[in-house]
């Protein structure tokens, strides 16, 4: 066969949906770019989008107000929004692959609650024990760490509950998740009960999910954790594809299943833990993003994970912009915005699948 | 050069279902595993693929399979389980591709469409797996397995197809088609181990057989020595008689009252 024939054959052989998924990636990147610019320029403080853009492009000095708003408020917030969105969306996609169920999601199955429990523990209890100076210094590291531990414990418990002999029971997974969420919710409630007024206010806002408190120092620990865990998760695609035929077949085709499970659980715990630590409870990202992507270009995890990261980042930025402008000059917590968008989409997903999937 | 198992014991919980099974299969042959429902055929297959825990030893060309890492093992043998469930809406082509992706087998993705064509599903490459019929799904899985070890011999080392009831849900034409593929694979130097129910297909295609009953090997060896009407009648609780079939192995037919 001539070389050109071979080339043509190879092109024809690639799965058609794979090239669509790669094209979609470029589209999503453009959308994310738009979201980043919008997030940097839209907000309560009236600095003009075009003026700032123009100044940036032409290299002019920004005014002090502009600089503060842009670099100290909006830039960390945008950066955090991207990382949290990517982390939650990829967490959802990895959990769905791991549990072999499109309804798995860190929020739904109690992983976020576990992370939240860890975080609340730090906010309430460590405040009582440690001097403020120490807290100030370690707080930014302790919150993500405790949230990671909480998320990890839930993931381990969930997998042990839901999986027997390599098969995942959907009913056990969902009910187990609900049970775990309820349990960590109760424990969190006890700690909230112990909290003082200032902590309570902090907890309430944190629990509704918000990107408001984003500062560079808050991101110092959480951002690398989210970034690295998301990058690590992107390499799980091939393994999760294999796992879609069950653990046994995954092993038969050459996947180290134990290692795959360990890595999936660790990366989800780190992504969700850090995201929850800095932004509280933002739901539905992990379920909506992968689902829409699967509808559009198919379930191949090799492209799904990166696409989910980009789309999750963009979705959260847009939700954050909505949260900033809809009740301006005040702000609606982004968790509420996501729930208002996400709830109906989730129900729609459920209804579409009602005929197909029997729990 | 062989696929060998010795003294295999397997328990589910406290119940032992294989009580020390010895098994051997040679490359270049189709070796059938036969026996009544629940006799332990699938369990033996799962021991041969290290899918479940066993005591005893399974060796592939002299290597203990527990010592061979999964990616390397995937390049030396492919496994068709009795049933596979697929979670996400992959197409037939994608299912076959997934089978190729992880193993260090040296096979290229070009074999995906060739494998689908071999099982008669070239036209269904881009159909959703979950929307195919049970028999078609089974054939996609056959294609996946075939693609994974496409060349029967690599660098002088035979590769293996381990098939658990490969044709049970297929129509008669495709039963023959799949068994032809298996037989050809063996004739080109590869090894085939297949759990079979249809004794006549077994008689026609297998070179050797292993008859299992209640977790023990009752008889194994050349196919003609195993497929004995009296022995099988007793094991299967069904009176069988041999029907002369020209020059080839006699057919086995149940005696119906
Ligand atoms: N997962 C399991 N748990 C408990 N018992 C099992 C399991 N799988 C198979 N068995 C039992 O082991 C025996 C052999 O099963 P199997 O190897 O599947 O039989 P077959 O020869 O029909 O393939 C049967 O008695 C069956 O009930
Ligand atoms: Mg069986």
From TrEMBL, chain A:
The keyword Repeat does not apply. GO terms for molecular function: transmembrane transporter activity. Belongs to the binding-protein-dependent transport system permease family. FecCD subfamily. The keyword tRNA-binding does not apply. It is a multi-pass membrane protein. GO terms for cellular component: plasma membrane. This is Hemin ABC transporter, permease protein. GO terms for biological process: siderophore-iron import into cell. It comes from the Bacteria. The chain crosses the membrane at residues 27-50, 79-99, 108-131, 137-161, 173-195, 215-236, 268-292, 304-322, 334-351. Keywords: Cell membrane, Membrane, Transmembrane, Transmembrane helix, Transport. It is found in: Cell membrane. It comes from Candidatus Rhodobacter oscarellae. Its main location: membrane. The lineage of its organism: Bacteria, Pseudomonadati, Pseudomonadota, Alphaproteobacteria, Rhodobacterales.
TrEMBL record, chain B:
Part of the ABC transporter complex HmuTUV involved in hemin import. Responsible for energy coupling to the transport system. It comes from the Bacteria. NCBIfam families: PRK13548.1. It comes from Candidatus Rhodobacter oscarellae. This is ABC-type hemin transport system, ATPase component. GO terms for molecular function: ATP binding; ATP hydrolysis activity. InterPro entries: AAA+_ATPase, ABC_transporter-like_ATP-bd, P-loop_NTPase. Residues 3-239 form the ABC transporter domain. Keywords: ATP-binding, Nucleotide-binding, Translocase, Transport. Pfam families: ABC_tran.
């Amino acid at each position: 066969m001539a070389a050109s024939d071979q080339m043509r054959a190879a092109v024809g052989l690639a799965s058609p949906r794979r090239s669509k998924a790669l094209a979609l990636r470029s589209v999503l990147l453009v959308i994310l770019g738009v979201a980043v610019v919008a997030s940097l320029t839209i907000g309560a403080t009236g600095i003009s989008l075009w003026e700032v853009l123009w100044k940036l492009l032409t290299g002019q000095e920004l005014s002090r107000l502009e600089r503060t708003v842009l670099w100290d408020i909006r830039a960390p917030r945008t950066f955090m929004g991207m990382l949290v969105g990517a982390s939650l969306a990829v967490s959802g996609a990895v959990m769905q692959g791991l549990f072999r169920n499109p309804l798995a999601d860190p929020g739904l199955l109690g992983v976020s609650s576990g992370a939240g429990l860890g975080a609340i523990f730090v906010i309430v209890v460590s405040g009582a024990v440690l001097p403020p100076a120490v807290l100030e210094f370690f707080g930014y590291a302790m919150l993500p760490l405790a949230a990671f531990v909480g998320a990890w414990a839930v993931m381990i418990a969930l997998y042990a509950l839901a999986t027997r002999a390599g098969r995942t029971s959907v009913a056990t997974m969902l009910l187990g998740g609900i049970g775990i969420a309820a349990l960590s919710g109760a424990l969190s409630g006890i700690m909230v009960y112990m909290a003082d007024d200032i902590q309570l206010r902090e907890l309430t806002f944190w629990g509704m999910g918000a990107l408001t408190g984003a500062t560079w120092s808050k991101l110092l620990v959480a951002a690398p954790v989210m970034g690295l865990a998301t990058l690590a998760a992107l390499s799980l695609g091939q393994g999760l594809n294999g796992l879609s035929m069950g653990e046994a077949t995954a092993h038969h085709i050459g996947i180290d299943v134990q290692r795959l499970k360990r890595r999936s659980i660790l990366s989800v715990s780190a992504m969700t833990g850090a995201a929850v630590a800095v932004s509280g409870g933002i739901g539905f990202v992990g379920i909506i993003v992968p689902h829409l992507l699967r509808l559009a270009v198919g379930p191949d995890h090799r492209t799904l994970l990166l696409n989910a990261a980009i789309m999750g980042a963009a979705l959260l930025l847009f939700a954050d912009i909505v949260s900033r402008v809809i009740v301006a000059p005040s702000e609606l917590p982004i968790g509420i915005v996501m729930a208002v968008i996400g709830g109906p989409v989730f129900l729609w997903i459920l209804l579409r699948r009602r005929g197909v999937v029997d729990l | 050069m062989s696929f060998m198992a010795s003294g295999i014991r397997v328990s589910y919980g406290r119940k032992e279902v294989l009580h020390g099974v010895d098994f051997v299969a040679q490359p270049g042959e189709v070796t059938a595993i036969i026996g009544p429902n629940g006799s332990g055929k699938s369990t033996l297959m799962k021991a041969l693929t290290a899918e479940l825990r066993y005591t005893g030893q399974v060796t592939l060309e002299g290597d203990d399979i527990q010592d061979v890492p999964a990616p390397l093992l995937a390049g030396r043998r492919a496994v068709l389980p009795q049933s596979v469930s697929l979670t996400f809406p992959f197409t037939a082509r994608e299912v076959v591709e997934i089978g190729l992706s992880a193993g260090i087998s040296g096979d290229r993705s070009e074999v995906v469409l060739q494998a689908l064509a071999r099982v008669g599903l070239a036209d269904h490459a881009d159909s959703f797996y979950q929307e195919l019929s049970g028999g078609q799904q089974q054939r996609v899985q056959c294609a996946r397995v075939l693609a994974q070890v496409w060349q029967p011999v690599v660098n002088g080392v035979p590769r293996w197809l381990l098939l658990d009831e490969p044709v049970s849900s297929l129509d008669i034409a495709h039963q023959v088609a799949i068994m032809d593929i298996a037989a050809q694979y063996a004739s080109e130097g590869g090894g085939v181990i297949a759990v079979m129910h249809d004794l006549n297909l077994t008689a026609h295609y297998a070179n050797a057989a292993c008859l299992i009953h209640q977790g023990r090997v009752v008889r194994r060896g050349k196919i003609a020595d195993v497929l004995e009407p009296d022995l099988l009648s007793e094991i299967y609780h069904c009176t069988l008689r041999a029907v002369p079939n020209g020059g080839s192995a006699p057919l086995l037919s149940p005696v119906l009252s």
